[in-house]
Amino acid sequence: MSLQKASMNQYSSKPKGNPALMEDTYVLTSNYIAVFDGATPKTVFRFPDGRTPGQIVAQTLADVVKKLPDDCTARRAADIMSDAVADALQGHSGEASGVIFNRLRKEIWSIGDCQFALLNADGSIERHHTEKLIDRQLSDWRASIVHSYLSRGLMSSDEIMADDPGRRIIQPFITRQTIYQNRICELGFGVFDGRYIPDKFIEIYSVGSRVAAVILASDGYPILHRTLEETEAALQQLLQDDPLCIGALRGTKGIKQGHSAHDDRTYVKFSL
């Protein structure tokens, strides 16, 4: 497992392999704190330096946030970041989700399927996670396929982890779901892909005075808890109980053979 740690309460992990392939990133400035999650590659294309499109987009977004004016609105920030992503992709396809805290405006901006939690002074916790309808449908389809292979004895769990038939069957639809990006329709969803992001997909949350701390995270965590340790423990239990990711951890991909988890993950917690 490759790790990245910073001086505050932040943590990023890649399930296995070269940390240079991490598609999550986070950024801290005097006014902004943000987490970006580059999308898993849908093709074999790589940029000349070896990076995936998702990595390019996530890092571009992190670089842009460092230069945003403190009083920037969510709408303006989305436009600035989208323009930068379009330039960075050089005509190629790539996307990332992001969740951004603006300290001056006391707002959290969420585009895509990253997540956050508000820890209130009274001890309560408010969790916010936007799930794409298309992902939910494909996850259910993949789970049904994997269940059918298991129930009929066609493949063992280990064989599925090595060559997931569900993932293989839904892959063409995962590749084609880009047609719904930043499109207002039943299956539409927002994402940083270099195109205009409709207002509908720019979620803005005000952080009130009763909030004592905030957690920003990528969707590698199924649920956020008050501490990193609790959040990691919950994830590890789910990975142990559902390694194929067809039950409580249902998703469009399971744990690959030899990997420790199903996805990159990043957790950033800070006090107000």
Report on this model:
The protein is α+β, with helices and mostly antiparallel strands and 272 residues long. It has one domain (2-271): 4-Layer Sandwich (Phosphatase 2c, domain 1), CATH 3.60.40.10. Helices cover 29% and strands 23% of the residues. The protein has helices spanning 53-65, 74-89, 133-151, 157-162, 165-176, 228-241, and strands spanning 2-5, 9-14, 24-28, 32-38, 96-102, 107-111, 115-120, 125-129, 203-206, 211-217, 265-271. The strands form 2 sheets. It has a 6-stranded antiparallel sheet, with no helix packed on it. Strands 3-4-5-6-9 form a 5-stranded antiparallel sheet, with helices on one face. Strand 3 and strand 4 (32-38) form a beta hairpin. The longest helix is centred in the middle third of the chain and has 19 residues, at 133-151. It starts with a strand and ends with a strand.
What is the secondary structure topology, with strand pairs?
Layout: E1 2-5, E2 9-14, E3 24-28, E4 32-38, H1 53-65, H2 74-89, E5 96-102, E6 107-111, E7 115-120, E8 125-129, H3 133-151, H4 157-162, H5 165-176, E9 203-206, E10 211-217, H6 228-241, E11 265-271
Antiparallel strand pairs: 1-2, 2-11, 3-4, 4-5, 5-6, 6-9, 7-8, 7-10, 10-11
Q: What integer is the average pLDDT?
A: 91
Helicity range: 25-40%
The secondary-structure element order is EEEEHHEEEEHHHEEHE
Largest sheet: 6 strands, antiparallel
Query: What are the segments in which pLDDT stays under 50 over at least 5 consecutive residues?
Result: 1-7
Tally of DSSP helical segments: 6
Query: What's the CATH topology label?
Result: Phosphatase 2c, domain 1
Strand order of the largest sheet: 1-2-11-10-7-8
CATH class: Alpha Beta
The CATH superfamily appears as PPM-type phosphatase domain
Give the number of DSSP strands: 11
| Number of structural units classed as domains | 1
**Structural classification:** alpha+beta
CATH architecture assignment: 4-Layer Sandwich
Cα-atom radius of gyration: 18 Å
How far apart the termini lie comes to 31 Å
Bin the strand percentage.
Answer: 15-25%
Shape: globular
